Amino acid sequence: MVSNEEVSSIIDAYPRDRRYALAVMQDMQRTFNYVPENGLIATAEHLDCSVAQLYSMATFYKALSLKPKGKHIIKVCDGTACHLRGANNLVTGVKRELGIVPGEVTADGEFSLELVNCLGSCALAPVLVIDGVYHNKVKIDAIPSILKEHATPVVTQ
Ligand code: FES
User: Is 137's pLDDT higher than 70?
Assistant: First the structure.
């Protein structure tokens, strides 16, 4: 849960002008990993627009999410080339390792999984991207080591 103070610290940095609506929500997305409900309400008040307007922007832009996303975002390409070359296997591999399906976040908030359209590397299908890093011609057996590579290291003392 994001506090109203945390929300205000973002919103107050912007002028009271509706054209900043997207920038405010992008800022919240970056900071909180999603746009919280109290953030939408406070932004609507600050910019003198309706929550419904902000809601439709938040659902239109794929970069914005109304639900918390994981710290690390896994994108499995499900464009035609990747689909034909086994994108479903990659989803199965991630599910096997992390217990999540597309649209879900792991209980510890580490990873979220998304199915996306063509990522522009069709010749290297199937493609999986984590935190913007492309993994090409991925086989299901490689999923555990790819995930390990991107996981937040556990600090032991
Ligand atoms: S279909 Fe996956 S990169 Fe194009």
Answer: yes
